[in-house]
Design brief:
Elements: H1 4-11, H2 15-37, H3 40-57, H4 67-85, H5 106-110, H6 116-125, H7 128-139, H8 144-151, H9 155-181
Helix pairs in contact: 1-2, 2-3, 2-4, 2-7, 3-4, 7-9, 8-9
């Protein structure tokens, strides 16, 4: 977390303070970029571009949200722009009309543990659009409305995509387990 003092100095243009901001936030920013774009080199490029955008916009940061949340939105927007340039983001709202599946009962889903490698593999198997909404909602805590603003979709479309992404993750993570138990 970036201290208010460091952030204030960075907003006044102190380059050393901005270096402290980068040191304090780089790991999570890079991890978000990597999860969104799926390639280490691309994630490095996205992270660098996001920090450049943040530096240019820092004086306009209004502090109506946590700085880290603001920064992660910049990283997300940069990653989405990167994926769109590469033609890999797809259309977030293309299956908005589908009927969602019912969620698993709480007792069925809460007791299953998943290791990091399996989760990373399952996330990587999702489309970039699905992966984006899951990460922004479940890892970075954005609301569906905020995610919709970030990706240019309606809140309803984000909810549908989130539901489908979670259902697909359940399939990828737990269906083989069930088949192995039979």
């Amino acid at each position: 977390m970036v201290s208010p003092d460091v952030l204030a100095r960075a907003r006044r243009g102190d380059p050393r303070a901005f270096e402290e901001v980068v040191r304090a936030t780089h790991r999570r920013s890079y991890t978000l970029a990597l999860r969104l774009v799926g390639d280490r080199q691309d994630a490095e490029d996205v992270t660098q571009e996001a920090y450049l955008r943040a530096y240019r916009s820092l004086r306009g940061f209004r502090e109506d949200a946590r700085f880290e949340t603001w920064l992660y939105r910049i990283v997300t927007n940069t990653a989405i722009s990167h994926l769109r340039r590469r033609g890999r983001f797809g259309d977030l709202v293309r299956d908005e009309q589908g009927v969602p599946e019912p969620p698993l009962p709480a007792d069925a889903s809460d007791e299953r543990a998943v290791d990091r490698d399996r989760l990373a593999t399952a996330l990587g198997a999702l489309s970039p659009a699905m992966r984006t909404v899951v990460l922004l909602k479940d890892v970075y805590g954005l609301s569906c409305a905020e995610i919709g603003q970030e990706v240019g979709a309606t809140e309803g479309a984000v909810k549908v995509r989130l539901h489908r992404a979670r259902a697909r993750l359940r399939e990828l993570l737990f269906e083989p387990e069930a088949a192995g138990d039979a």
